[in-house]
Amino acid sequence: MIALRELLAQHPLFSLGILLLVGYLIGKVANRIKLPEITGYIVAGILVGESALGFIPHEMGEDLKLVTEVALGLIAITIGGEFYWVKLKRMGTAVVIITLVQLVASFVLVAVSLVLFRLPLPFALLLGAIASATAPAATVAIVQSLRAQGQFVDYLYGVVALDDAGAVILFGVVFAIAGGLIGTPEAGVHAAEVASHGNAAVIIHALSEVGLSVVMGIAAGFAVHYLARRRKNQNEIMITTLGVLFLSTALAIALRLSPLLTNMAAGAVIINLSPDNHRIFRILMPLSPPIYALFFVIAGTELRPEVLLDPQVLIIGAAYIVARAIGKYGGVYVGCRIANTSERIRNYLGICMLPQAGVAIGLVLLIEASPSMAALPPEQLAYVQLMVNVILLSVFVNELIGPPLSRFAIVRGNEMERT
In this structure, is the dihedral angle defined by the CA atoms of residues 240, 288, 75 and 17, taken in order, positive or negative? Predict the structure, then answer.
């Protein structure tokens, strides 16, 4: 195994080959025992990662980062493509109501629960904001593997897409408030700006990032539409679309914007500019299986099952996971009641909100990397590390049990729809 690990380290393609093959095999095993293939991919990642066999060392993370960025771009543009105005008009304000209620419910329940478990208020607020985020990648992959369609899926895509946008905005505001409570009011903007304008500068900065991400996505959507509208050849459409997708993702990352929001906006613009643009998403569809498989296997290599051995992480993590699950399901249920949706959506949609992965990890790592957090005294710095471990534990649990539950909910929701 040591020799094989050294061979893999020579070139990322060795690692990608191993990840794809092991992911495929364990994904098939998971499918045989009635689990989603995604769960198998994540287990495969844990198996070949440093926590088990050690074939994929931590230092290879940067080499494999490109695959993750491409996958997130495809996932985001697929979700954006569900923002078809005709569908949204049918759903009306229901999706917005459901999203807002479950965002607030999960934030409040997690923050209050963690304060009751003696976590300081600023860190409880931050974890509450992170709890509002879901994992759109898992949802999209399951829906596509089931080839599910209908009103239930329309609501699911709509809530998941709006949830991530709402989570980013909520996090920006809470980060500013928590920074003030901790006594270090810097959260991603220049120190001089914070000194002259206070926490308002942090809030404005966070909202401006969201706005700029959307503007860039709109521009990318128009570019794809313009390049594809006069072309009949599918290969040409795929090449030009991927070119714009890669450019918009790279620019968003370089400018410290949200590639997720950028590509979601691009997908929404593409689908609404012309009915013919549905073909763009159909052409991209064959790329999804290998990219999604690599994405989830790589995510599995980053998980650390050993954090389960820390009693404090276990206690705080269990409170976080339970409170978030109640907030997500209960929030969706109440939101559906307010919006007067059908029984199948009310009963099963909330279950699909449980998976949590990339966005949550990204937000907590943003906290850890913030200069203000790095400057905290040791006793407060320990809480930052605790937050990281709690989110990793949540991702580990929710990415294993979340996809099977989501698959069950999507199947049941569509079965009831057909009947």
Answer: negative
